[in-house]
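About this split. The held-out portion is used to measure sequence recovery: a designer receives only the structure tokens and must propose an amino acid at every position. Recovery is the fraction of positions where the proposal matches the reference. Here is one held-out target exactly as it appears in the evaluation file.
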């Protein structure tokens, strides 16, 4: 009986060790970021800026508690933001328009719960905690004859004081991992934090989609 209990305990411990896996590694990819602006005035004060196509790079750590459930945390850098093009109007003999681009240097800390449909395929839900450590805006006024950069060197203005530092964005995503540890993932993060810091009552949110690739070390 004692031998049976001992063998049973060893088997249970072995199963638990097999189910619990820790993996870590680098990841990088492509991001599409947009800014939504609501100035609380009228329909003219609400607009979505055009997507800004950028990148992200960093690392991840995954802890799988059993065959179906796990948790993941990451640290990523991404220059998020948005851009906008305002169609030109006739000013005398010139046709004048405007282009604006906002760059938000952001350190992202995504934390998520994962459900493994199969060993290699999983879905995830969680939240991105983004720390914005730089914010710049570049505006160029263009015409048929010339482009004029507005304010500052190269038309770039520091707007860090106008932007709040924390951007919280819940997300959903999917991931597929090969047997050798190479994985591909995609997710969409919906910006819910008001990033505007000007006190006018308006709201600015940052949402973004990501598609990337990475490699996981560790596991059994």
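Reference sequence for scoring:
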């Amino acid at each position: 009986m004692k031998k049976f209990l001992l063998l049973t305990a060893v088997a249970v411990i072995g199963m638990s060790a097999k189910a619990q896996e820790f993996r870590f590694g680098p990841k990088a990819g492509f991001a599409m970021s947009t800014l939504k602006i609501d100035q609380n005035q009228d329909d003219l004060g609400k607009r979505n800026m055009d997507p800004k196509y950028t990148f992200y790079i960093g690392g991840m750590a995954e802890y799988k508690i059993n065959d179906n459930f796990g948790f993941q945390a990451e640290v990523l850098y991404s220059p998020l933001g948005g851009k906008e093009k305002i169609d030109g109007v006739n000013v005398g003999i010139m046709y004048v328009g405007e282009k604006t681009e906002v760059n938000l240097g952001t350190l992202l800390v995504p934390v998520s719960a994962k459900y493994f449909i199969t060993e290699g395929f999983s879905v995830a839900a969680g939240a991105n905690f983004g720390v914005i450590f730089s914010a710049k805006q570049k505006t160029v006024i263009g015409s048929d004859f010339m482009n004029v950069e507005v304010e500052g060197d190269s038309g770039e203005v520091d707007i860090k004081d106008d932007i709040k530092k924390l951007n919280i964005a819940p997300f959903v995503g999917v991931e597929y991992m090969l047997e050798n540890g190479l994985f591909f993932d995609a997710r969409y993060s919906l910006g819910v934090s008001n990033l505007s810091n000007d006190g006018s009552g308006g709201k600015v949110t940052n949402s973004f989609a990501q598609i990337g690739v990475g490699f996981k070390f560790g596991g059994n």
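Annotator remark: The radius of gyration is 23 Å.
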